[in-house]
Amino acid sequence: MKKLLITGGNGQLGRAFKAKFNSRFHLLSLDRNELDITDRLKVESVLKNFKPDIILNCAAYTNVDGAENNFDKANKVNSYAIKNILSEFDGLFIQISTDYIFDGKKGPYSELDISNPINNYGLSKLNGEKIALEMSQNLILIRANVIFDLNSKSSFLDWVIRSLKNKIEIFVVNDQFGNPIWSVDLAKIIFHLIKNEKRGIFN
Predict the structure, then answer these.
(1) DSSP letters of 68-135?
(2) Catalytic: 100?
(3) pLDDT at 155
(4) What's the Cα-to-Cα distance from 33 to each of 50, 76, 92, 150, rounded to whole Å?
(5) Cα separations (Å) of 60 from 48, 53, 79, 154?
(6) What is the largest CA-CA distance in the chain?
(7) Is 64 helix (H, G, I), strand (E, B) or coil?
(8) Can you give the pLDDT at residue 159?
(9) In 3-state terms, the chain is what percent helix, strand and coil (to 5)?
(10) How far apart are CA 142 and CA 150, in angstroms?
(11) E strand or H helix that includes residue 9
């Protein structure tokens, strides 16, 4: 049974993958408090002790608006931290990226479309993609779009439902289009890619 490490394990995708496929791997899921991927020594220690065959990197700075004023922090997590992992690891690396690496002028985007981020969040994730592609030949890079779940504070869908139930007025953009995906479905896609030994970029 292969060893699989999930970073950012307390997020929507990390929880969904663990719940669905815990029995298919020797699985270790660590949240930010257990493994800060920006801390190279902690990353080294976990990799040395657990010796994973696969890493599913769900750790990320995801505050799109916050990244405008905190680019260094966003870039540290979404980009530079990947170096910490791949400097010590040559197994299958699964990086979760985003459609924010594009400029939004068209869509849906294909894997061959040219990236052109228009905000700091998108730029930080694109920087992470570049590092992953440069450092790993054993890579699955997934550009997800609007991951949602139920009973999760970080889920847009859950926020809308809770707000409406509590009769709280909400304000959202009216000029943005997306292809939402349930975290469980994305977990199934990732498992399919692993099982069928797929590699490369997947939008």
Answers:
(1) HH-HHHHHIIIIIHHHHHHTS--SEEEEEEEGGGS-SSS-SPPTTSPP---SHHHHHHHHHHHHHHHH
(2) no
(3) 60
(4) 17, 16, 24, 23
(5) 22, 21, 9, 12
(6) 50
(7) coil
(8) 65
(9) 40, 15, 40
(10) 22
(11) none
What is the rounded distance in angstroms from the CA atom of residue 198 to the CA atom of residue 203? 14
Q: Which residue has the tokens 């040219």?
A: 114
Check whether 139 has a pLDDT greater than 80. yes
The confidence score (pLDDT) of residue 157 equals: 63
Which residue is listed with tokens 């299958």? Answer: 92
pLDDT digits (tens, 9 = 90+) for 82-104: 999 999 999 999 999 999 999 98
Determine whether 123 is exposed, middle or buried from the number of CB atoms within 10 Å of its CB (0-12, 13-18, 19+): buried
The catalytic position among 61, 100, 109, 121 is 121
In the numeric block, which tokens belong to residue 127?
């920087």
Tokens standing for residue 157:
């869908």
Using DSSP, state whether 174 is helix, strand or coil. coil
Q: Which tokens belong to 134?
A: 């440069």
Q: What are phi and psi of 90, to 5 degrees?
A: -125, 15
50-75 b/e (C-beta count within 10 Å ≥ 16 → b): eebebbbbbbbbbeeeebeebbeebb
